[in-house]
Amino acid sequence: MKRTLVVSIVMSTCSFLILGGCTSAAATVPPTPAAVTASPVASVFPTASPSPSPTPAPTPPALPLPSGCVNPPPDLATIVTLDPPTRLTCFGGSSLTFTATVSKAISDCGIGPRVEPTWFCLPGVFLDVPNASPDSGLGALDVYWNPTSGLKPASFVAGKTVQITGHFDDPVASTCHATDVPAGQSPERSDQVVLTCRETFVVTVVQ
């Protein structure tokens, strides 16, 4: 009875295996999954736009030169025909060289307040246009010098024609101020005192 039951179970099992394929089948290799293409990741940082090139500032138009202005001047006559404000506008602080005849020394600073630095007032000399006729109408140019230049009154011999080098708008002019204001007189405005010094011709070389 037991043997018959065992045989029946074995046969049933084999029948089940036959239906499913009683022989051992080779192991089936699972298919290789398809490669996954990574999607591009958007940057979390904003893309910088190129900076625009700075626009150059427009060049201001050159101011017209005053009538009669020639820089550098060909001679002393060109300078003395201009009034002091025009000389300053025309020549600025540029170095000028011209021939002149020493006239005479400046003996005083006139009536009114004195100026510091004092060499903008004394000593000084008048320079004439060489060979100018008395009726030419050409005036003299009053000039001064900084003592640190080594010049002195003896450097200017009256009646001698020399070559002069110098300039208007000396840097020291910005320090000019009035002193010793006479009683009863009102001092000049400080900006006017500085302007007067800037309009002064300062000699640097005499040859």
CATH classification class of the domain at 76-206: Mainly Beta
CATH architecture heading of the domain at 76-206: Beta Barrel
Q: What is the ordering of alpha helices and beta strands?
A: HHHEEEEEEHE
Straight-line distance between termini: 154 Å
Count of beta strands? 7
Structural class: alpha+beta
Rounded mean pLDDT is 79
Radius of gyration: 52 Å
Specify the overall morphology: globular
| Strand line-up across the major sheet | 1-3-4-7-5
Question: What percentage of residues falls in helices of 4 or more residues?
Answer: 10-25%
For the sheet with most strands, the description reads: 5 strands, mixed, barrel
Tell me the fraction of residues in β-strands, as a range. 15-25%
CATH topology of the domain at 76-206: OB fold (Dihydrolipoamide Acetyltransferase, E2P)
Low-confidence segments, ≥5 residues, pLDDT <50? 1-27
Q: How many helix segments?
A: 4
Structure characterization notes:
The strands form two sheets. The chain has a five-stranded mixed barrel. Strands 2-6 form a two-stranded antiparallel sheet. It is of the alpha+beta class and 207 residues long. The chain has helices at 2-19, 76-80, 84-91, 190-198, and strands at residues 96-106, 114-116, 124-128, 141-145, 161-167, 177-179, 201-206. The chain contains four helices and seven strands. The longest helix is centred in the first third of the chain and has 18 residues, at 2-19.
